[in-house]
Design a protein that fits this description.
There is one protein chain. The protein is built from 17 helices and twelve strands. The chain has helices spanning about 5-10, 25-40, 50-55, 70-95, 110-120, 135-150, 155-175, 180-185, 205-215, 235-240, 250-265, 280-285, 315-320, 320-330, 340-360, 370-380, 440-445; strands spanning about 15-20, 45-50, 100, 125-130, 190, 195-200, 225-230, 275, 295, 360-365, 395-400, 405-410. With about 450 residues, it is an alpha/beta fold. Helix 6 crosses helix 7 (about 155-175), helix 13 crosses helix 14 (about 320-330) and helix 15 packs across helix 16 (about 370-380). The protein has a six-stranded mixed β-sheet with strand order 2-3-1-4-5-6, with helices on both faces. A six-stranded mixed β-sheet has the order 9-8-10-7-11-12, with helices on both faces. Strand 8, helix 12 (about 280-285) and strand 9 form a beta-alpha-beta unit. The protein is globular, with a radius of gyration of 24 Å. Bound molecules: 2-acetamido-2-deoxy-beta-D-glucopyranose (3 copies). GO terms for molecular function: 6-phosphofructo-2-kinase activity; ATP binding; fructose-2,6-bisphosphate 2-phosphatase activity. Pfam families: 6PF2K, His_Phos_1. One of its GO terms (cellular component) is cytosol.
């Protein structure tokens, strides 16, 4: 069952049409929106016109983007048409809810064309313009593009940068930004210098307002997010789930070691971070030796196992055989009797994610299921996989969000702990080496598409 059934009941479909010059972070914003909505089970997809154009012209120079270049214009038009056609197909045959059309759409004529198309197909068009004249931000984006865009593969970085700036000039010549005076009847959001100033016009649906709220919270300052489970607990030793137990002796050692691990991971930023914990004893105890500011969140408490709280998996299999089976079959949706499902946890974590987007360096000390959900958001891990990811005890995970991917590093404390990992179809704990792929996601995650428009 989708989270926001409202949009399905009313059959709302939204096309977010990106507007703005190259190097304004449009693809970054597009990818983030798709990741956020997908994490909330709202079917979303990005259609990047640049990727379609590349199939016909893979390494174009700036002249290709001149508004007087007829061959270039034709290829770009065809790419746009192909992207829009695929988008319409996706809406109709795959029940898509939010599509992002990632293109420059710098002229009013282009926008009118898209507007008509959306209206003919009962799709709500929402324009999202990223407008920026802060040279520092633009240069940073240009560096990102020239080092990651397939258009400039194998080219020397200075040549790439100067060609890319010429390309931006070509667009600049015909660019018509959105204005209240001329576009006042459209639904649009205009972000100025990322989110220094935001202009919001005629937002009509709940889902649109959610998207607006989300993009308003994004920032592009460099920062890292650190994730750790609590140290091994007395319940972990006994194989019991839930509860509010103390740390074991080894768990206590991990707590003692944690300040050193954090220092190793954060370097000179070690004092420049805030520690978030749940309200349960084991995360408080794990954080006890950290000197940084601390904040407790009820929303970070472990998945509530309801009637199964305090039982081992073997006991659950014996006492609730049907439940045990159902959970293995669909772990994401299965809700413990009187407790929660992974889906429930994702919903209560939404404010945490929103606040994380706003914040800078944060260390989160929480629990296995909660950590899986947070990790899935940053690494784009699909719902079928996220509840099965292996996140071992006594390991600090460092996430470094970059424009087009998140870099992951795992730092092991070298303090032994039991495994709390349960594979499908057994009540025994521990990872069998035979299957070997359970921790796959932790290492690679799912990289976000490389881009540019
Ligand atoms: C955007 O940033 C530039 C450069 O820092 C500044 O001159 C301009 O006033 C800013 N615009 C807004 C609306 O904040
Ligand atoms: C603290 O971290 C943020 C984000 O990484 C950074 O922008 C800021 O400059 C840092 N402050 C200090 C004092 O290092
Ligand atoms: C100037 C420009 O590139 N505009 C594009 C906006 O998007 C439409 C539809 O995707 C394209 O046709 C245009 O090329």
């Amino acid at each position: 069952m989708p989270v926001y059934t409202v949009s399905h009941v009313q059959n709302i479909r939204i096309c977010v049409i990106m507007v703005g010059l190259p190097a304004r972070g449009k693809s970054f914003i597009s990818q983030k929106i798709v990741r956020y909505l997908s994490w909330l089970s709202i079917k979303a997809k990005c259609f990047n016109v640049g990727n379609y154009r590349r199939q016909a012209a893979s390494h174009p120079t700036a002249d290709f983007f001149d508004s007087q270049n007829e061959d270039g214009l034709k290829i770009r038009e065809e790419a746009a048409t192909a992207a829009v056609n695929d988008m319409m197909k996706w809406f109709n045959s795959e029940d898509g809810v939010v599509a992002i059309l990632d293109a420059t759409n710098t002229t009013r004529q282009r926008r009118d064309w898209l507007l008509r198309l959306c209206r003919e197909n009962s799709i709500e068009p929402m324009f999202l313009e990223s407008w920026c004249n802060d040279e520092k931000i633009i240069m940073k984006n240009i560096v990102d593009v020239k080092t990651t865009s397939p258009d400039y593969e194998g080219l020397d970085p200075d040549t790439a940068a100067s060609d890319f700036m010429k390309r931006i000039d070509k667009y600049q010549e015909i660019y018509e930004p959105l204005t209240i005076e001329q576009d006042g009847d459209l639904t649009f959001v205009k972000l100025i210098n990322v989110s220094d100033q935001v202009i919001i016009n005629r937002i009509e649906t709940y889902l649109e307002s959610r998207i607006v709220y989300y993009v308003m919270n994004l920032h592009i300052r460099p920062r890292c997010i650190y994730l750790s489970r609590h140290g091994e607990s007395m319940y972990n030793l006994e194989g019991k789930i839930g509860g509010d137990a103390d740390l074991s002796e080894r768990g206590f050692k991990y707590a003692q070691k944690l300040p050193e691990l954090v220092k190793q991971a954060a370097g000179d930023q070690v004092d420049n971070l805030t520690v978030w914990t749940s309200t349960l004893i084991r995360t408080q105890q794990t954080a006890q030796f950290l000197q940084q500011d601390k904040l407790q969140w009820k929303a970070l408490d472990e998945l509530d196992a309801g009637a199964c709280d305090g039982l081992t998996y073997e006991e659950i299999e014996k006492q609730f055989p049907q439940d045990f089976k159902e959970r293995d079959e669909n772990k994401y949706e299965y809700r413990y009797r009187g407790g929660e499902s992974y889906r429930d946890v994702v919903i209560r974590l939404e404010p945490i994610i929103m606040e994380l987007e706003r914040q800078e360096n944060i260390l989160i000390i929480t629990h296995q299921a909660v950590l899986r959900c947070i990790y899935a958001y940053f690494m784009n891990v699909p719902q079928e996989e996220s509840p099965w990811m292996s996140i071992p005890l006594h390991t600090l995970i460092k996430l470094e969000p970059r424009a087009y991917q998140t870099i992951v590093q795992r730092i092991k404390a070298d303090i032994p702990a039991v495994s709390t990992y349960k594979e499908k179809g057994t009540s025994q704990l521990g990872e069998s080496h035979a299957s070997g792929n359970s921790s796959k996601n932790l290492i690679t995650g799912a990289p976000i598409d490389k881009k540019d428009g």
